[in-house]
Design a protein that fits this description.
The structure is a homodimer.
Chain A lengths: L1 H35 L3 H13 L4 H8 L3 H13 L3 E5 L7 E5 L1 H8 L7 H9 L2 H18 L20
Antiparallel strand pairs in A: 1-2
Helix pairs in contact in A: 3-4
Chain B binds a DNA duplex (30 and 30 nucleotides) through α1 and α4.
DNA sequence: ATCAAATGTTTTGACCTGTAATCATTCGCT
DNA sequence: AGCGAATGATTACAGGTCAAAACATTTGAT
């Protein structure tokens, strides 16, 4: 009977850890915003454009694991502030290609940290076995949470580049 | 020299896993919203009130690890929809006490899942050693990300109940 | 040629989240 | 008693995030 309680406790512990991680991640993003004027998601989108060149919204969305709508709103802000330039593709007028402006390129020369420096320092102090264990556990959780199994790496194979991030 | 690259790769992997986890968590919250009409944060606040009784905003905020402002906005929505009732404390008119309404109590009788059922099912299938490893890793990461070390459990000891979540 | 389905993007609407500023009260000192 | 500091809550503002709806365009089938 107490076994159910036990299970509940276990999930609660996971929930608590996850919430702390999510909160810390968000706080870091806010911090980066104050320091360098761009949030982590904005930087990630910028990096994706740098890596992929003139790229469609959908490609960015896949690459950074965000919905198309989210990427659009991030692009709006980035374009307002002149970090990227959007141009409609001439051959297919549905698609929009995004490029970095000089300002956009400039802000990336000295990439601000996407991850909390505090965390990185402490993480690096761990021995590599521990680090591997942690990484593996995180990936395991991510997989467990993935929408559907069967295709851990979905056979999108639609010419996508490595969907890093 | 390729050692730096290696480190970078490692952090990138962590970042990717974290982003997927955060995204999945958010998606689950949206899903819960569609199914039961309340998001996970709203449920968590409701549960905190159920557990703590007539409680101040600050206490809720501590209990659920969210800022006071965030709790206020969540309470706004919950009060608008008549799940909670706020009353100013008579002895100290600065403080606001929140209580569940009948409707609020009712919605909690069959607590909707705070965690993705899909995830829970798959997680339960793992052997307990693996599960322990995962939980430990998550807590390790949460600690590594905590604002300051030295006081893993900060000596708040201000009569708080267990700050679960 | 035409019209429906598919595709790519943006808009809309709802929520979560935090910091900083503001408001109201209470407390502590003199 | 009175005034400034501390405390509790809310508001204002800036983002992130998504699903669904709305648009625009292209493609495919007739």
């Amino acid at each position: 009977m107490g076994e159910q309680k036990q299970k509940k406790r276990e999930f609660l512990d996971i929930l608590v850890a996850l919430r702390q991680i999510i909160r810390a991640t968000d706080l870091h993003s806010k911090h980066v915003m104050k320091v360098c004027g761009l949030t982590v998601p904005q930087l990630v989108v910028l990096l994706a454009i740098e890596e992929l060149g003139a790229v469609t919204v959908r490609q960015i969305s896949k690459h950074v694991s965000l919905s198309q709508a989210t990427v659009t709103t991030i692009l709006n802000r980035l374009e307002d502030r002149n970090f990227v330039k959007r141009t409609r593709n001439t051959t297919d007028k549905r698609v929009v290609n995004s490029c970095l402006t000089d300002k956009g390129r400039a802000v990336l020369v000295d990439t601000p940290p996407l991850m909390d420096g505090h965390f990185m320092l402490r993480y690096e102090k761990l021995d590599s076995a521990k680090r591997a264990e942690i990484l593996e556990a995180l990936q395991e959780v991510a997989n467990l949470m993935a929408p559907e199994e069967g295709t851990p790496i979905p056979p999108t194979d639609d010419g996508e580049l490595t969907p890093l991030l």
